[in-house]
Design goal:
heterotrimer, A alpha+beta, B alpha+beta, C alpha/beta, A: alpha+beta, Alpha-Beta Plaits, 3 domains, 3-stranded antiparallel β-sheet, 8 strands, C: alpha/beta, 7-stranded mixed β-sheet, 6-stranded mixed β-barrel, 35 strands, 28% helix, 19% strand
């Protein structure tokens, strides 16, 4: 039989006696105990501010004079792979939009949306953009459809704010429910 | 409304053509000459009814030719500068600029004293003497800035 | 025949074929903007340039005919770069506002640039702009000249096809703009053919403006529900609202053309006043009820066998429904009292069908246009059947033929006529008999001719109000032609004494070895279908003999007035508004013991009903319409009926089943099988769904034409003219009626586009009469007849006959039916300025 040599290995025995493996494992655990935590204390203490490239909730832009950029060309809804955008145009030359064609209805069904950003690419006037808002969870299906009126309200994170940081945040009670309120002035750089 | 004289002239013109509508250019010319150089909507409507045409067709004929001025009153002297290729090569653009400066109007406009109207036209068939312009019925050729100034002075 | 080589492929084509068509036949695509087969080629867009071997410069293939042995290249690098160059130039001043443009998504320029274009422009100069904002050209047309590619199709279609000639090219070169006189508001036919031919978004529909994108629309191929020309069109809806009707190039006899009613009049479908639930009269008022309740009442009040019942079905229903309707009456109710028209005498209809040879099968309009002489009589074709008018104008302009128009009123088509006859209204008989007297009539047996011979030409001429030389000229032209086509309109049915003369002329010409075709010009989409389905008291399906002749609309109303009618079932017809004696009709309908009205709106008739059933419009059902030529064409369903409304087919079947559970067939397809059996005319009619370009036989789908009836039980009856109402001194104008260009029947009154074009009643008299009265176009006038008075707007028409006033039958605010008296001839009116 050319198997393992039977016999006694002294080194192994010593290792077992002084709990080498145990110490090794424990050192990692203890190491984490003293290192910086990677858990985000979201939502009541911290909130992650995504990078600018992030594709979150849509918003509709206005030009410098406050006119809606959307001309209701419906290209976003045509480009949408999940058909979650509905646009109905109308005529309005009162100066609401940059052209006399404006959106009567512009709505996006967030349940169907896969945040691919094709709508952004298709938009000839850069009216629709995917913003950095990602807190879209809700308890009723109806509020997953976001309409033009809501989307025209500028998002809390302006485009010029750099992302990739954790900011201080707290929970606040609003008439619409509990919201996370970030404090953009107090942030720390964080790489994932 | 056409005057009696104009109507008579138009009747004479009608005799030259095999059908009535062919006389549209004559009719427009007669009207324009009698109206101080331009044609208005009512004239075209009247010509259309006399020649049994649609008003739109008269309008088309009148706007096709730069010689007719539709709804655009012109001054006493209508300066038409050729801007086609020969004249352009010989400096028509410069002549136009110069005219705009001296008259203080833009192309297509009339001076406030209603004396001059400046417009650009297509080839007037005088390429050998480019650059050139036509003021009312007269040609002024081989233009230079000085020559233009002189012509304008004489007209004033 | 010549043989040419295209891209190396040899093809043999007819002499004079355009290179473009030869290339397309050979299977090569040549892009075009300005080419359209129906229009005169102008070769202006330069997209179709091709290279011909041996010629240094590229040639426009849409105006260059092939020559024997030509070698043509449509794909060479020079051609490809020329196309890209042309497109680059077209885009140089193009607005490029595709996101806003209504044409975006179906724009020929977009497609062309995508396919052949340079994708990149080198023009850095500022673009020339005609105007900043789109301008409205008419209540239905809006214009943006900045997108124009100067193909001039709009101007050409307006001139060559529509004949309105109100569009033109202003200015020249890159400043050339196709628009109206000084861009002013258009006073034209408003048919929107300029919109349809426009390859870009230059001419646009105003009612469709900024409503959708073409890819959001769902469409159904259908047939226009207005006049009986039978234009194929597609209606399209977005989210259940029908927002566009369009014609398609090369589909149907109309190809890309439609009239104002067809293109813009579909929106009655969306009218909020549509009936959506059955109504039942309770305590004197109509109240919503359930279907069960309504059906229960019908079952209780319609007696099978015993009592006297009647039925009037609208020629707006499809053939399947009409067939079932007559079957319901003939087999279930055992009553022959059915009719399909509230306006016409059944005897007149029978005579007209016979005189116009409708039982001999379908007659293609294109066959009529291939004849030597075309006689249009008894029809104001330009207003009643506008697309027929386009076809006549377009084809007659391109071939040598006589077009004779005999009409009391001037019409747009007059300019295409080689001979014009203005006769007195209602005097078609005198005109035709005078023509017959001038033809050589020796070959007919004496009995037939006797009444004609007796009539003295002199007297005829004076009653017709025509000149001897005019009649002689017409007779000469008819005599010299070997093929004659007659378009006979609804005026024959309004003045039925003229019908025998029509039959006589046809027989006489035929006896002289001429090929004579008669095309009836009708004003309801399925009027011919209604007759051929046997919705007539005198004949059954396929003009077959019926054992028991019944009462027509007039007889039914008379019985009702006497209180003899137990029940009346009106499906889709507005008898109260349309019957020529409004007062009598209202009185008679109120006297019916039990009145059921099935309609899509609460019409004047429905308001008198005991039970109102909500039916479906043409967009909500499938079926067959037979147009005036006898072409059976399918309509497709686009939407479900609104609310609790049902297809008329289902309603009629349910009524039948409540009396006889085996009443059927149960679905329209089986009904069609039965129709094919019962009316052999429909036996081998092909209903192949032709929503495709009809390449084989161009626009003329001959397989859809019905065949001749095997045994037609028809005869021409001599109908004595009704005595005029008199009072010529007091009332100087003889009142004539018909359809308006913008309104036919009562449907168009429910369309907001059409009422936007014309809402209040207008009265039309000749310019001479207006001058004599000191009235001008647009004046408000009071129109006074013997029994009633109405206020209308005056329209004058140059060239119309004197002493005649025309009021369309479609205005509810001034119902012309009120001026008429039952059993009397045309009323007379006086016109005074308010």
């Amino acid at each position: 039989m050319n198997g393992r040599t039977k016999g006694f290995n002294l080194l192994e025995l010593i290792k077992k006696v002084v709990f080498t493996d145990f110490v090794k494992g424990l050192s990692i655990t203890l190491g984490y105990n003293v290192s910086r935590s990677i858990t985000q204390r979201y939502p009541d203490e911290e909130k992650w501010i995504p990078y600018r490239r992030w594709r979150g909730l849509h918003y509709l832009n206005r030009d410098a004079e406050g006119r809606e950029l959307c001309v209701a060309c419906e290209l976003c809804s045509k480009a949408c792979p999940t058909q979650c955008i509905t646009v109905v145009p109308m005529e309005d030359d009162s100066g609401r939009g940059i052209a006399d064609r404006v959106a009567k209805v512009w709505k996006v069904d967030l349940v169907r949306c896969l945040y691919c950003g094709y709508c952004e690419d298709a938009c000839p006037t850069r009216a629709v953009r995917l913003g950095r808002e990602y807190e879209t969870a809700c308890t009723d299906l109806a509020s997953t459809v976001r309409r033009r009126e809501e989307l025209l309200v500028p998002q809390a994170l302006a485009e010029n704010i750099e992302g990739g940081v954790l900011v201080k945040s707290r929970l606040v009670r609003t008439p619409e429910g509990i919201k996370v309120e970030p404090d953009l002035r107090r942030h720390k750089k964080r790489s994932l | 409304m056409l005057t009696e004289n104009e109507k008579k002239e138009l009747q004479a013109a009608l005799k030259k053509y095999p059908n009535r509508r062919s006389a549209v250019m004559d009719a427009l010319r007669i009207v324009q000459n009698g109206r101080g150089g331009h044609i208005v909507k009512e004239d075209m409507l009247e010509i259309a009814s006399i020649l049994e045409m649609q008003p739109a067709e008269v309008n088309a004929a009148a706007t096709f030719y730069t010689m007719y001025n539709v709804n655009k009153p012109v001054g006493k002297h209508h300066i038409q500068v050729c801007r086609n290729i020969s004249c352009s090569l010989m400096g028509a653009e410069h002549i136009i600029k110069h005219l705009e400066r001296t008259l203080d109007i833009k192309t297509g406009q009339t001076t406030p004293d209603k004396k001059f109207t400046l417009s650009t036209v297509e080839c007037l068939g005088s390429c050998a003497t480019a650059p050139m312009m036509q003021i009312n019925d007269d040609y002024y050729e081989n233009l230079t800035d000085q020559k233009v100034d002189e012509i304008l002075k004489n007209l004033k | 025949m010549v043989t040419v080589k295209i891209n190396g492929k040899e093809i043999t084509v007819e002499d004079g074929t355009l290179i473009l068509n030869a290339a397309r036949d050979a299977g090569f695509e040549v892009p075009t903007f300005c080419y359209q087969a129906d229009l005169i080629g102008i070769g202006s867009c330069r997209m179709c340039l091709v290279e011909i071997e041996g010629q240094k410069k590229l040639q426009p293939s849409c105006v260059t005919p092939v020559l024997h042995g030509m070698s043509i290249n449509t794909e060479s690098p020079t051609v490809v770069s020329a196309r890209a160059g042309v497109l680059e130039f077209l885009l140089a001043n193009h607005a490029l506002d595709c996101p806003v443009c209504d044409k975006g998504g179906e724009c020929e320029l977009q497609d062309m640039v995508y396919r052949y274009g340079p994708h990149k422009g080198r023009h850095a100069e500022p673009k020339f702009k005609f105007h900043e904002k789109d301008y409205v050209l008419s209540p239905v047309i809006i214009k943006n000249s900045n997108r124009c590619v100067q193909c001039v199709k709009c101007v050409r279609v307006c001139r060559e096809v529509v004949g309105a000639n109100v569009l033109t090219s202003l200015n020249r070169g890159d400043h050339q703009e196709e628009t109206s006189f000084l861009r002013s508001f258009l006073d034209c036919d408003q048919d929107g053919n300029c919109i349809e031919v426009c390859p870009v978004g230059c001419f646009m529909r105003l009612p469709y403006r900024y409503k959708t994108r073409p890819w959001d629309l769902k469409g159904a191929d259908t047939v226009c529900p207005y006049c009986a020309t039978g234009c194929r069109m597609v209606i399209e809806h977005r989210d259940g609202v029908v927002i566009r009707a369009r014609a398609q190039l090369g589909v149907g006899l109309n190809s890309e053309t439609l009239c104002a009613r067809g293109r813009f009049g579909f929106d009655f479908i969306n009218n909020p006043n549509r009936l959506t639930t059955p109504l039942v009269r309770k305590r004197g008022a109509l109240e919503p009820a359930s279907w069960e309740e309504a059906m229960g009442l019908i079952k209780k009040n319609f007696s099978v066998g015993g009592g006297k019942v009647g039925g009037i079905a609208s020629p707006r229903l499809v053939n399947e429904e009409l067939y079932l309707f007559q079957k319901l009456f003939r087999t279930v109710f055992n009553s022959p009292n059915i009719d399909s028209s509230s306006r016409w005498d059944p005897l007149a209809v029978e005579s007209f069908v016979s005189a116009a040879s409708m039982h001999e099968g379908g007659v293609s309009i294109f066959d009529c246009m291939a004849s030597d002489t075309l006689l249009i009589i008894g029809s104001h074709l330009s207003d009643e059947n506008p697309v027929t008018d386009y076809i006549v104008r377009r084809i007659s302009a391109n071939r040598r033929m006589n077009v004779i128009i005999a009409s009391p009123r001037a019409m747009k088509l007059d300019s295409s006529a080689t001979q014009l006859l203005r006769h007195l209204p209602g005097a078609e008989d005198s005109v035709l008999e005078a023509i017959i007297l001038n033809l050589n009539y020796d070959k007919l047996p004496d009995e037939t001719l006797k009444p004609v011979k007796d009539a003295r030409l002199e007297a005829l001429l004076s009653t017709a109000g025509a000149l001897d030389k005019e009649i002689k000229a017409i007779a000469r032209k008819l005599g010299a032609s070997s093929t004659v086509a007659v378009i006979a309109g609804t005026d024959f049915l309004r003045a039925p004494q003229s019908i025998p003369a029509l039959g006589l002329l046809k027989d006489l010409l035929r006896s002289r070895g001429k090929k004579v075709t008669v095309l009836p010009a009708l004003d309801r989409c399925n009027q011919r279908g209604a007759w051929e389905m046997g919705v007539h008291p005198g004949f059954g399906p396929g003009y077959s003999r019926v054992d028991k002749k019944g009462l027509g609309c007039d007889g039914i109303l008379a019985a009702a007035e006497q209180g003899e009618l137990d029940a009346l079932y009106i499906a889709g017809s507005d008898v109260a508004s349309m019957y020529p004696d409004g007062e009598f009709a209202a009185k008679a309908l109120s006297a019916v013991k039990f009145l059921v009205v099935q309609d899509i709106f609460l019409t004047e008739t429905a308001k008198l009903a005991h039970v109102v059933l909500p039916g479906a419009s043409f967009a909500e059902k499938e079926g067959i319409f037979t147009n005036q030529e006898g072409r059976a064409q399918i309509i497709r369903k686009l939407l479900p009926p609104p609310g609790k409304a049902k297809r008329d087919f289902d309603i009629i079947r349910a009524v039948g089943e409540s009396f006889d559970p085996s009443f059927g067939p149960k679905n329209p397809v089986l009904v069609l099988d039965e129709i094919r059996k019962e009316a052999p005319m429909y036996g081998d009619v092909s209903l192949v769904f032709n929503n495709k370009k009809n390449i084989e036989d161009k626009l003329d789908n001959r397989a859809a034409l019905v065949k001749g009836a095997q045994s037609a039980a028809l005869k021409v009856s001599r109908i004595e003219p009704r005595a005029d109402l008199g009072g010529a001194e007091q009332f100087p104008f003889r009142l004539v009626t018909g359809n308006h260009l913008f309104h036919s029947g009562m449907l168009s009154r429910m369309s907001s586009s059409m009422t936007g074009l014309l809402n209040a009643a207008v009265i039309e008299i000749s310019e001479g009469d207006a001058d004599a009265l000191g009235l001008r176009n647009g004046d408000k006038v009071s129109v006074r007849g013997a029994a009633c008075e109405a206020q209308m707007t005056l329209r004058t028409r140059k060239g119309s006959g004197k002493g005649m006033a025309f009021v369309a039958e479609n205005f509810e605010d001034a119902p012309v039916a009120r001026f008429f008296r039952r059993g009397k001839g045309a009323p007379r009116v006086a016109i005074t300025k308010i």
